[in-house]
Here is the input.
Amino acid sequence: MFKKISQVLDPLAFHGAAKKPPFFEGWYFKCVSGGGEQLAIIPGVHLHPQAGESHAFIQILQGGSNATNYIRYPLTDFKAATRGLSFSLSGNHFSLHQIHLDINEPGLRLCGEVHFSGLQPWPVTVRSPGAMGWYAWAPFMQCYHGVGSLDHLLSGRLSLNDHPIDFTGGRGYLEKDWGSSFPSAYIWMQSNHFAIPATGLMISVAMIPWLGGKSFAGFIAGFLLNGRLFRLATYTGADLRVLRVEDHTIHVEIESRRHRLQVTAHRATGGWLQAPGTSGMGARIAETLQGRLDVLFFEKKSSRENLLFNGTGLHAGLDAAGKLSQLCEAGDA
Here is the structure.
């Protein structure tokens, strides 16, 4: 029981030590240089019902070319600390404050270090342990989500196939997911490249299986503005007023008692990533690092609204996968 409590209150730590398959756990390090070069580095593990299929991995998405790489490692190469975000994988090291990469595979040579400072984490309390809120305490969730930093400053360099990338002065984002599989339908978007520095937005909408074979459209939105995190989520009592997916745009409107968030996400060509399902890492999803988020954020006062923010987020991460019509219908219910 104590171990379960400590894990819930430490969402970025490795949770898979005693899990049974199917189970996955993956961390998402997004790094954007001052010159706009984008990389997503996604290390993780997947436990398969067939022991020989269980493995660790590092997945890479290159924002400019949309090229992707999936490097598979023996599960025994993954070594994690018992607390906090700190693990190594075949000479690569990942922690809350830096990544050290030394990947030399056919078609991919990626090495160097990137350091993180000024992290803006999603607060963790007993009543609301991170981005999942009180749902983090539910022991039967299909997929859990944690946000390590909505925005932070980068320093350091990586060499990608002998091409140097200086990340000093760039900005990063950090999150993770873990559970038995990704949801049957979900939309995720994120940007922390707005005209106003230290501004970050993350929205996730997904079909959530629940008790009695039922499911619902759950959502999490975190908007960091002027050092304050505004949380609009299913568990805060907010409402998903609009969810509309079109060929080139996704429209989301979320309203709470005191605020209204309106986002138009402009989709862009992405790269194909492997995603977890109950039968393995065979699912393929298209994710871009070149989306754009047009954001309006209002404060509600009496019978009027005050516009607190109007801006556009660049270098946006964006993907939408699964039965999106089902998700939109549930969101409108």
